[in-house]
Inverse folding.
């Protein structure tokens, strides 16, 4: 059985569980369960702290896992990214009291609070800066106000936590992070199926199916507007001057594409949701 690590708590846990469920796996029923088997799909789930998942996978104790790219890099584990999962996006940034810092070099000899010392230490070393890292478990934005650090390095999503603490972002982006599927490097049977299923969920979330009828003379221009994944499906209609076209379109572009197709002469433009996919 493929042994899969899943976040038990925190920002990534709910979406990770939802994605696995949409991919056809049976997850835990009780949110306090630490382990559950899904023999029908040949997998076992282990519910762990997202920060620890790279350690379990990197050591080979578990085969694959879902965690954040920032947590993977911070861990220094041998685990590697297999696929990105399209959620849990965040940016890792330096911040300090408004006006105090403008560039990275100013962190030399300064106290920087973070919960990600591996990630931040590696980044600073790569840029030739020697700061004194203050390791905290969370809520690092309070460290400056409370006097234990001069600056912080932390996850930024909306930026509202920083603003509330009177801090401003400065310096280069440390990392663009998102939820990722990681593996130990040794590919285990069943990993391919898991990856394809998760990618199917992403496609179903990110794309819609678009059907429309268009006069043959405008077909080339219409398929240029929405070229689809590989090539649009074109079917004859009873009227030989018209054809029916089916194509996948990114959900975010859907209305824009419908407007353009309509103005090209396409009619009966219909959008339907994709419930599952294997591409
Ligand atoms: N506000 C946020 N928005 C998006 N992603 C976030 C946010 N906070 C943390 N993450 C991502 O979630 C992962 C950290 O999850 P984790 O569960 O360890 O921390 P958490 O969500 O802060 O939970 P807690 O601090 O309660 O333990 C990282 O990959 C991080 O980039
Ligand atoms: O940019 P924002 O949208 O404000 O989000 C970023 C904040 O969210 C996370 O904190 P969390 O609530 O997980 O608390 P923690 O710092 O104790 O982990 C993260 O550590 C930042 O503090
Ligand atoms: Mg947190």
């Amino acid at each position: 059985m493929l042994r899969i690590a899943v976040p038990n708590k925190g920002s990534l846990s709910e979406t990770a569980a939802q994605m696995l469920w949409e991919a056809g796996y049976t997850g835990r029923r009780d949110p306090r369960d630490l382990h559950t088997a899904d023999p029908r799909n040949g997998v076992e789930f282990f519910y762990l702290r997202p920060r620890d998942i790279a350690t379990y996978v990197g050591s080979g104790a578990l085969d694959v896992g879902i965690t954040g790219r920032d947590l993977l890099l911070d861990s220094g584990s041998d685990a590697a990214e297999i696929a990105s999962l399209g959620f849990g996006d965040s940016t890792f940034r330096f911040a300090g009291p408004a006006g105090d810092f403008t560039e990275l070099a100013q962190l030399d000899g300064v106290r920087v609070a973070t919960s990600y010392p591996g990630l931040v230490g590696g980044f600073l070393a790569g840029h030739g800066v020697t700061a004194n890292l203050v390791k905290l478990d969370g809520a690092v934005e309070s460290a400056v106000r409370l006097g234990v650090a001069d600056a912080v390095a932390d996850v930024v999503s909306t930026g509202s936590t920083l603003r509330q603490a009177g801090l401003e972002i400065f310096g280069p982006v440390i990392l663009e992070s998102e939820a990722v599927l990681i593996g130990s490097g040794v590919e285990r049977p069943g990993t391919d199926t898991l990856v394809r299923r998760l990618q199917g969920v992403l496609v179903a979330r990110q794309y819609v199916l678009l059907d429309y009828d268009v006069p043959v003379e405008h077909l080339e221009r219409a398929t240029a507007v929405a070229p689809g994944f590989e090539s649009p499906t074109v079917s004859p209609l009873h009227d030989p001057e018209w054809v029916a076209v089916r194509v996948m379109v990114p959900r975010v572009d859907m209305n824009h594409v419908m407007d353009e197709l309509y103005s090209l002469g396409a009619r009966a433009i219909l959008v339907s949701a994709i419930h599952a996919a294997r591409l």
The pocket of PRP (ligand 2) is lined by residues 138-139, 141, 154-161 (CB under 6 Å). The chain has a mean pLDDT of 97. The chain is about 30% helix and 35% strand. The first strand starts at residue 2 and ends at 7.
